[in-house]
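Note to self: user wants both folds in one dump. Writing first protein now.
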Amino acid sequence: MIQKFTLFLFVFATLAGTSGVMAQKLVNPNQSTAVDKSAVKRQKPKNPSGQQKQVDVMGSVDNGYVPGETHNLYFVFEIANEDFEYVDSVSMTFPDGMTLNSVSNDEIFGPSFDDGGDAEAYNGIDGQEVSWGDNDNEYGGITSQGSFYFFSANVTNDPGLTGDQTIEVHASGDGFGDTPGNQDFTITVSQTDALPARVQVIHNSGDEAAAVVDIRVNGELPPFLDDVEYRTASPFLTVPSETPLTITVNPADSEDDTTPIHTLPLTEGLDADETYIIIAEGIVSDVGYDPDNLIAPFNLNVFAGARENATTDGNVDVLAAHGATDAPLVDINEISEVSTLLFESLAYGDIQGYEELPIGNYALQVADGTVGTEIAAYAMDPHLAFGRRCHTVDRFCSFPALPQPTSHAMHCLLTPLESL
């Protein structure tokens, strides 16, 4: 059995007029496709119970704050509903002593997933409050079909700030029932001594013995790392820094980490305020693959210096990872006009980047790095697939496409040139 040639290109972009939030839409498990709320909205049925909580918003922060420091707080909002009501505005009020400098989603809160409503616009920062949306109770643009929204807020903390701090959140429903289903809740931010590390995990082992895995950190199963399928990736997650970590790859539905497929001991831990990509790659099985697990053993490939956003507005930052155990040394060229070498002599397991390119359409050629023979050529349009997590040369991506571009951890779609 040969493993299919897989080359990852990670593309991060910040565009004028786009949002700095990554969102994921989860399909209703009882339906073959996601609910088309726009069709339901036109009927506008009455809410027979008259309940006030049609939307169900759960928000959390992934890290604590450090007194006297300026840093990001990383938020996750999960938005669901009881009657297909959407959210048309969100506000967050930060505590005194925590100065709000900026947010990553400074154009829109996040994408709307259907034609029933436009995305809700960023209103700006007013003192301790930041808000999005118009609260017009008409076709809210923040989708609530089990949608996840990831964004960050940059804050400066007073040196004397101490103890748990509370962020007040207000989410307003769009009036799908008799009255808008508004919701108020709080998010607690705890004091900490060190900033965390940020980690994205990508499953790129084609061995059927590791087709679905649990990835545990110090025995615990973090969100989004349960039942990770081949060719999928997690969002960027926060993990403790400056402390020993043991990362294990375990069989799916594991109860603990006592029978791991692979163990990565990080005795020195991860650096504070550093961002990493960890790629699971290689072969587990003793037989059935060429090269086998002696030549290309299963491994967690750690890349430090990853980016969640482009360094320059209007650019895409491209990172290439060679993840095919049976592919030769390769070069990657941009060939839309004059052939330009982007990545040179990538061997299996190599990660190179970042190349910073202006937003535009590109043609990428994967060539044998020894003799220069073309292996394949692909079209790359950064506008086609913003918000997707991870794409390969055979047009794989792990997260659904989003209707609007976003600037948080964006990746571009690669399409074979002959299919255009």
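First done. Writing the second protein, which came from a different request thread.
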Amino acid sequence: MSFSQLNIGDFPMKDLRKFGNIFNGSGALGFFNQDEYWYQVLLRRLGIKYKDGLTFVSKTTNMDGRPGNMELTKDYKPAHWYPDCIHFDFLTGNGLNAVSVPTPGLIALLTTGNWQRMEKPFVISLMSMAATPELRLAEHRRMADVLGGEKKHFRAPFSLELNLSCPNGEESPSEQIKGSTDVLAAYAPLEVELVPKYTVASAPIEAIMLLEDDDNCDGICVSNTWHYDLDGFGEKVFGQKVSPLKKYGGGGVSGPALRKHVLAYIRKLRQAGFTKHIRGGGGIYSGGHVREYRNAGASSCFVSTVIPTRSLCVPGIIRYANSLTWR
């Protein structure tokens, strides 16, 4: 049965299936599912409904806010149409960003009331950029407490995507994976679906398998972007040793170059016995790519770089994803 044939009431209280089959990547649609960039405004004016059927995932935030590398307006949108911390190769569809989690902070975002007013299930993306595992865990506990006090005001169900490996910051992804269990436990009292997000290049299968028996983990999301300098990956993708975003530390690669790696990772994870929900994404540019993810063992998928680089393909991808029966 496809997602379009089901209602929220058909699912148990905690069940990721009620959030749908296809999501946007965190950051693609801003903090509040708004049109932020020139191409999004153009699509809207042309009447192209590139978000219909897509489950919204918010741009990532931390607790207290940070400037990152992208200036925000008073409405928390990008201050510039094409920020210089983002780079696209429109020919290949690959992207590169060094946005580095600019955010006003969780409390400021909640104060707007925008999340609380949403009518459909959606996802809030959270991350700590603190310097040590202890400080990161303390920050996650603070965010859990704040959300716990505000949860009763939300009209729609929300789940949490916990970004535990983001190469656009200064954190070590492998170190963050080690603290996954404690972070999940911090959010458990909220009784919402918890999905940690990892970069497959730095998330060993054996480490992720530890989450199989963690009752607080409802599933995982893969993959985050790959750092430009990781094993020469960026040079292979963009054809130059020095990143176009060198002044921001290189940035993270997204798009078609990731697809085969993420698909292989999902297959290996399923072969290892991982049975929980896997939200897979990276380089989905057609319905055929959606099918590849589903057949590899993904339980749902997400799209990101395709939205700015192949905007007209997105409605068809969404429709196809929602027509499939997923794991």
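Dump finished. Worth passing along: The chain has twelve helices and eleven strands.
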